[in-house]
Amino acid sequence: MPETKWQKSSFCGGGGNNCVEVRLESCLIEMRESEQPEAVITMTREQLAAFFAGVKAGEFDHLI
Asked: What is the pLDDT of residues 16-56, one digit of tens each?
């Protein structure tokens, strides 16, 4: 099966190497920072949904 392409947000500043990239690979979501593409985080859809719910609820606002 061919490898899926990494996707960057259209909100990335300048579209260079300061973006988080995601892709779906073998039913798992993979995420990496474009500056360090060798460091990949793998998660399930449920794990990513839980993280997004926390972001939407403001649980991580203290980080920005």
From this structure: 677 889 999 889 999 999 888 899 999 999 999 999 999 99
Tokens of 40: 């990949």
Q: Would 58 be classed as within a structural domain?
A: yes
Strand order in the sheet with 36-43: 7-8, 20-25, 28-33, 36-43
Q: In this structure, are residues 33 and 59 in contact, taking their beta carbons and an 8 Å threshold?
A: no
Task: Let me know if residue 6 belongs to a domain.
Answer: no
Beta strand 7-8 with 20-25: parallel, antiparallel or unpaired? antiparallel
In a domain, 23, yes or no: yes
Q: How far is CA 2 from CA 5, 55, 62, in A?
A: 9, 32, 40
Give this prediction's pTM: 0.76
